[in-house]
Amino acid sequence: MRIIIGLVVCLTVVLYVDPVGGRRVRKRCKPLVFPDTTRDCDKAPNAEGWYPDKTVCTFECREGCVRDKGKSRRVCKVRGRSKWWKPAGTGLKCRCRTCYSPPPAVTNTTGPCKYGDYAAGVTCTYQCADGYVKVGGDHSKLCDNGKWTGADLICEAEPDVDGNWATWGSWASCDVTCGGGVQTRTRTCTNPEPSGGGADCVGNPSQTRECNGWQCPDCSRVCDVGTLNAACDACTCDGHALAGHVMDTRRVPLSDADIFYAERPDESVASTDAMGNFGLSGACAQGVEIIVKRRGYFDTRANSEQVDATTSSVRVNMSAIVPPVIDQHPQSKKRIAGQDVTFCCAAHGNPPISSYEWFKDGLVLDEAVYNYDETLTITALTVDDSGTYRCRANSDAGAKYSDEATLDVEADSMTSCAAEPEENVISLPDDCVQEDTNSTGYDIGACGGDDCVGDLGEDDKACVDTMRFCCVPTSTETRTVHCSGYSLNVTVTTECGCGSCVKTSTKRIQGRAYGVNRTDNASTEVPLKYGPVIKDGQVVDITSETGIFEFTIETTASKIALTFRDNFKNLVTSTRVLSLTDSDTLDFDVVMKLRPPPVTLMSSQNNVIDLGTVEGEEPLAELDIPANSLFTADGEMFSGEVKASVSFIDPRNPDDFELIQGELTAVDVEGREETMETFGMFNMDFETEEGDSLELGGD
User: Fold this and answer.
1) What secondary structure letter does DSSP report for 594?
2) Residues of the chain predicted below pLDDT 50
């Protein structure tokens, strides 16, 4: 027994003591390799691939193989010169069977795997055949230990999607720098792109316009006044000067407007300062033509006037660009197959409307086929012409869609109005019990009164149908109803047909405009007394002492915008967009914001006014009013004390919700309306001590 113990001790010493001068011993585990597996270790090996002590490696069967036997987890153990993976054994063994045939064929698909054997882990990828789209399943199938896995790809015939135009691109550069050229913009049929049996976009994919029409430099040119400059593109006069002033139609000075000689409209020679002033050296006093350009305004031409032998002056009034505004919307109509129909659209803007487009069910109609402008006429209608129509007015300032109009085309007059009357049971006196029904109810028939399609004659091409047709009685008879000791005569409808009935596009707009003075204990109404009600710049009514207004208009529009102004300055001038219905009389309550007390400002100083109406909360924003930025009606800078009244509609304050003016929508470049989010609205009024209005200048 002693000998055995001694041997054990001796062996232990040998294992744990490095021999002097012996070869280097790796204190790492040799990497393990098991066929058809993947390895993931929590510590990195050295350059030779050996792992340090306590490394944990996890083994998995590669894709397409399954575990047969063995452990998947090994830990590296190092003790002196000994190192081993624990637990011991042959390690993970995987089974990888071959797929001896391709995946079963699936209809309406294409793929590369059609013949032969496929090793475990091979993936076959499939696509839908041309004209088909995926509606389910998987694109790939995996040979998984001799079996194909993955759901069959399911493809169905591609639905018919009509193409629609994407937004117009930007105008390309002019093809010449002078002398008159052409520039182009394009659009693509990708919104959406047509697919299946869907129709392609109709209309022109490109537009052109003239550009750079000024004369090219001519060094042989002889100037009537002055001398030709070195660039041969303008006549100048040494020692002469032009003083100019630029303002808008309100006579408010415009800063940052660029000035060009009309002979050189591609090269800016000056710009206006904060007061709208500019100067040009070398401009001949006898008169020069200039072009003024500013973002948001029309390019404006003007000729200078001579002041004396060497100086001239010019005052330029610029008009703001106004995107298209729809004045007349198309009207919904009903027709019988074979009749004609006309839809009308009218708009204004600055610049004027350059073109109209018509759409049916969201797709533009081919102008070459329908030959339309602001009116669209379709003759010899068919049932297929039924749908939703609207126009789009286009100008260089943008585009605007009209309201939608519905066209219902019936196959015949019987379709729009059934000859058989509807049931309409009336109650007879209690002693008039009818034998056939054993009740006092008696069916006298009715035709419903719904709109139907009649014969408009030549008026079927009018913008607004001047006649209305309803389903009305065309045949009646008088029947005798017997009661207890007496009888009654009852008129019964026996046949219905389409007949004329009263129709008008006249609407009575009425209501009341007032403000609400809220205190801790009560709310008091403040009526708009004798205030103008304004539509399209024209006064259509004056409110009464109690704020009541009433007027009539001829319109087919679904909305109107009205402005309410308080001449007594108790309420803030407000604009409301009112939605119209089919009713001939519409009643509205217009709640206006109370005008806040004015504060006194000095026009020569920078002023800041806080914007916010929620007590205890920080202002939502600040209004900065620069020094010397207020101007009189004559366009002169005002100096002195100013009475400023600034009201703010705070989106954080529920009491302000009903005071929101206008409509929170914007129009994109294609004319589509988009809903906006508001961060508040404010209204500003500035007056002199004498009550004369002032304008905030510049921008």
Assistant:
1) B
2) 1-23
